[in-house]
Amino acid sequence: MPAAAAPASAPPGAAPWLAALAGAPLPGPRQEDWRFTDLAVLARIAPHFALSSLRVEASPLPAGIEPLAPDAATELLGSVLETSGSSQHWPVQLNRAAIDQGHGAFLALRICGRVSQPLLLSRLPGGSGLGGTQLVLLLEPGADLELLEVISGEQAEAPASALSSLTVVSVGEGASLRAGMLALGRPGHSLLAHWIAVQEPSSRLAVTTVLGDWDLARFEPRIVQTDGAAETRLRTLQSCRGEQIVDTHSLVRFDGPDGSLDQLHKAMADGRGRSVFRGAVQVPGMAQRTRAAQLSRNLLLSPRARIDTKPELEIVADDVTCTHGATVSCLRDEELFYLQSRGIAAPQASDLLKRAFCEDVLRDLPAEAAGLNPLAHLLDPVGSS
Amino acid sequence: MIIPDAPVLLELRDLQASVDGQPILRGVTLSIRAGEIHALMGRNGSGKSTLSKVLAGHPAYTVTGGSATYLGENLLELPPERRARSGIFLGFQYPVEIPGVSNLEFLRVATNARRQHRGQDELDTFAFEDLVRERLSVVQMDPAFLERSVNEGFSGGEKKRNEILQMALLEPDLSILDETDSGLDIDALRIVAGGVSQLARADSATLLITHYQRLLDLITPDYVHVMAAGRILRSGAKDLALELERSGYDWVDAELARLESAPAPLEVV
Amino acid sequence: MTSTATVGELVSQPYRYGFVTEIETEKIAKGLSEQVVRLISAKKQEPEFLLRFRLRAFEQWLQMPTPDWAAISYPSIDYQDIVYYAAPKQQPKRESLDEVDPKLLETFDKLGIPLSEQKRLSNVAVDAVFDSVSIATTYKEKLAEHGVIFCSISEAVREHPDLVERYLGTVVPSTDNYFAALNSAVFSDGSFVFVPKGVECPMELSTYFRINSGDTGQFERTLLVAEEGASVSYLEGCTAPMFDTNQLHAAVVELVALDDASIKYSTVQNWYAGDESGKGGIYNFVTKRGQCRGARSKISWTQVETGSAITWKYPGCVLQGADSVGEFYSVALTNNRQQADTGTKMVHVGPRTRSTIVSKGISAGHSSNSYRGLVQIGPKAVGARNYSQCDSMLIGDQAAANTYPYIRSQQPDSAVEHEASTCRISEDQLFYLQSRGVSFEEAVSMLVSGFCRDVFNQLPMEFAAEADKLLALKLEGSVG
Questions:
Q1: Within 13 Å of residue C39, how many CA atoms lie on the same side as its CB?
Q2: 3-state secondary structure of C123
Q3: CB C421 to CB A303 under 8 A?
């Protein structure tokens, strides 16, 4: 089956500075993983490092959280990347190169026991150029943490910047992590976010991510249940408008039996935006009794926007319950009509429905996220079509 | 009806069984003769349904002790389909839906398997349609259900009628009806009970598993057994059911506690 | 517990069509070159336009890389080690069946496709293709009375060159993909159907493909045109002998439906699948596409894929005409070391176009069964609708079921819905059937065929039972 016309590719040899840094050329549309996500905008970024920060919004660190020794962090990072098969991935290579050369911010934390208050982290690229942040989290067996990462584009109209963000997490046996990532950009800014976790048995991981307002945002959660028997919950909400590209590429692999996955991906594409989703779920032979459900729901709001969605289920074990579904449509006429028939004007009605569409994911973010009013950001267009 | 010296159809001696290593039946002893109607009562989790599944040969249950003899043969050695062909019928509490498999075809294959076992000629499509249309009247079922997939989208009552229709076609020698009355409104209950009574023969027997008296008002049992913790605690005549209806199951706990402290062989009626 | 191993054992049964017919054949030497392409064209006494079509395709093919994205793996094919043309010696095609070599008639008898006047199926016209050529077409005269043309494509090239020239390569251009280019260069025979304006084809049309020769590739080309308001139902079947080498089958099928026309295209594919260890079997790399050119036209694909070592096939519909309808119903059963990568492409171009996809994959043994689909809603497809359902059934824990449903939408006023599930044979359903006296084997077979019911219901009546039987055969160890 030949590919549908691929978007204009990054010119070969684009952003030579980034290619040299990562030690590999930028991936192009000939690679299946990058077919719909054109990295050409990265070529606009000035070839220098931005000042990035990765800040814990608490001082001192709450009880149960302590810094992880640098060598332990490096070892953990290496092994998690290895297990998840991410080390040769271009954005990961880029991130590691930037951090290793001393540019960007690095934070490694060890979590023991139950942490009673949520941990708030802010990642910020400062000024133009490439920013890099790296977070390593070790949840010891039985640890329990709620985490909210806030990533935001520069407030001022700074020249183009890109943030390379890498999160590496090890969730120990019986541990629980509820992680939220609220990533709201600004025109001219791009985000390459990798979120990699390995889960030991009886652990629970819930990752909720909200992406909006980036020229280019690529979010790649990769979760491996090392011996199965863990719970994974993924929620993503992404929106794009104008000429924005927003892309989630998720992969969940079960390397043991009795694991579960509950995944919901939601996307809104307006203007000339492009929304991309690839959701891989891998259930090899040893992963008997896996239960996995994936749903991709997409709202196409403009005739010039485009949605590409591609679930990928690879299943070898026979005693499994796996389902997935995808829908692409605009707002439903019946619902709009119902609201209108109650006296609500059409624009207001469609706004209500879009809000409801978003709320479904937003309510899974840690409560602190509400203060940042993400809804206004997602629905109230900045630089809109 | 109790017929003295009628042949014994089913003979259980200290039957024990477990599921996933968890013992459920802890020694059931029971004898059923041709012509008899037995009611098996007890609270949820007492092992009633397990007994029915074990008798039908469900693969999830492992027999760990005792014996079950059916028409002189060791029942436990037979695969489920052989038990069915030799006349054991289990009416399921929750009949499973099988999308895509035509109800009519399923009924025909099952009927012919039983007929073949009894040395009767298999019925061709036309002859079978005649038979099934005649038997539909037993449960007053709409022929439209024949065209649908097995139990798919049937209401609770329709599923139970479909079970009794299968009973009417297979003409079993021993019918085990597991909570056939559950989830039925009074009209459906009358139809189902009427079907069961109509299908009873002097050379066949019925084991009714139920919670409530209301089915027993329509089908009068010859014997009533009360099950608890995987054993038959008490057996008696139909009055025992009425007594249960009046006084509930509280005495069972006392009886069980007594048994746990001083295990003694149970008296069998 | 019901061991899946027992279910697995049931899925194996000997291939019944593995015999070789001893017949003198005329072959050209192995290998592919411009000379070979010219030779094939010359042997078939083709007009200039077709030779040019072939040569252009050949040049394009030389430039193309082999596709490597499908979830299948196989040793690379040596295209110089294949015979591109083989025909029973006895050319050209006979005017009457009496003149056909009795061995060939006997072969088709054995395959259950009797061709002779007395035994042929009463309401099905059959075109029988043996290796590279069509040896007989039944009921041609009766069809001609209605203006329906049903013949081999070689004959169509001779008798109706204008029609062939007008439509050939217009749905699947020779540049479409590697195997389509190869086919366009070397195709030997296949069927041609033309149903003129307003005609409802009075009987089922069917082509039966038989590979006989061990080192021959089969490259048939089928072209089916339904003019305004015409309708036709067409079925193809295929088998091959058991060889322990692999044979390449790279067909191209093109369907064209004009305004209000309707085409139903069914396939029962039972090529030799190789043995338990994966030795031998057909590589089935096929390009099938229909174009709903006219308003309110409809193209429906139904396929039952049980054979081949490797299947690579995505029958699709380009829904150009307003309100046109595309359908795809598929059952793919793989066992042992078989690999199937199959699905469909529904390309919605015109307004209010609708498509339905129902795919049922059953994987057993060490096989791999992938559904790969594309639903594309173009910017002008206002009001387009698609519904897809893909279910997989796994038998045993060594088989793989993959699902790659890809959706691209550029039209807000449209709705695309996809649902998929993976399951195995339910123990409770199995027990329910057994507790009514149904044997284990029959219960498994009933459940599998129940799983496929939605697809079987789409097959023409004459063949639905056959497909059911074919599946049951594959499932019943005892039947041979």
A1: 14
A2: coil
A3: no
* Closest approach of C197 to chain B, Cα-based (Å): 38
Residue C212: CB atoms within 10 A of its CB come to: 22
Establish if A288 touches chain C: CB-CB under 8 angstroms: yes
Task: Give the per-residue pLDDT at C16.
Answer: 67
Mean pLDDT of A51-62: 82
- Reported ipTM: the value is 0.82
Note the pLDDT of residue C375. 96
Q: What's the Cα-to-Cα distance from C335 to each of B157, C9, C70, C340, C474, rounded to whole Å?
A: 41, 10, 18, 10, 9
Q: Is the pLDDT of residue A180 over 70?
A: yes
Please check whether residue C334 is in contact with residue C340, taking contact to mean a CB–CB distance below 8 angstroms.
yes
pLDDT at C301 over 70: yes
At A12 the pLDDT is 55
Over chain A, what HEC string results? CCCCCCCCCCCCCCCHHHHHHHCCCCCCCCCHHHCCCCHHHHHHCCCCECEEEEEECCCCCCCCEEECCHHHHHHHHHHHHHHHCCCCCHHHHHHHHHHHCCCCEEEEEEECCECCCCEEEEEEEECCEEEEEEEEEEECCCCEEEEEEEEECCCCCCCCEEEEEEEEEEECCCCEEEEEEEEECCCCEEEEEEEEEEECCCCEEEEEEEEECCCEEEEEEEEEECCCCCEEEEEEEEEECCCCEEEEEEEEEECCCCCEEEEEEEEEECCCCEEEEEEEEEECCCCCCCEEEEEEEEEECCCCCEEEEEEEEEECCCCCEEEEEEEEECCCHHHHHHHHCCCCCHHHHHHHHHHHHHHHHHCCCCHHHHHHCHHHHHHCCCCCC
* Chain C positions touching chain A (beta carbons under 8 Å): 4, 69, 176-177, 314, 316, 343, 345, 372, 374, 376-377, 379, 392, 394-424
Torsion angle of alpha carbons C287, C293, C296, C301, nearest 10°? -10
pLDDT at C430 > cutoff 70: yes
* pLDDT score of A177 more than 50: yes
List CB contacts of A92: < 8 A, sequence separation 6 or more.
A81, A86, A166, A194
User: What's the whole-model pTM score?
Assistant: 0.84
Which 8-state DSSP code applies to residue B96? Answer: P
Burial class (CB in 10 A: 0-12, 13-18, 19+), B144: exposed
User: Among residues A13, A45, A362, A346, which one has the least CA distance to residue A192?
Assistant: A45
Instruction: Give the pLDDT mean for B38-51.
Output: 92
- What does the pLDDT read at residue C5? 39
Residue in the structure block whose two tokens are 């890099």:
A132
Closest CA to B2 of B41, B31, B45, B43: B31
Q: How far is B2 from chain C (nearest CA, A)?
A: 28
Phi–psi pair at C79, nearest 5 degrees: -70, -10
Residue B146 CA to residue A364 CA, distance in Å, equals 47
Q: Do chains A and C touch (3 or more CB pairs under 8 A)?
A: yes
Both tokens of A194, joined, read: 């990798």
A46 burial via Cβ count (<10 Å: 0-12, 13-18, 19+)? middle
Length of chain A in residues, anyone?
A: 385
**Whole-number mean pLDDT of chain B?**
90
Residues in chain C with CB shorter than 8 Å from the CB of B95 are 432
Q: Helices (H), strands (E): how many in chain C?
A: 12, 23
Strand C252-257 vs strand C281-292: parallel, antiparallel, or unpaired?
Answer: parallel
Say how far apart CA A343 and CA A347 lie, in whole Å: 12
DSSP C461-479: HHHHHHHHHHHHHHH-TT-
Q: What is the pLDDT of residue C393?
A: 92
Q: Which residues pair with A136 in a beta bridge?
A: A108, A168
Looking at every residue in chain A, the average pLDDT score rounds to 88
Contact call for B59 and C429, based on CB within 8 A: no
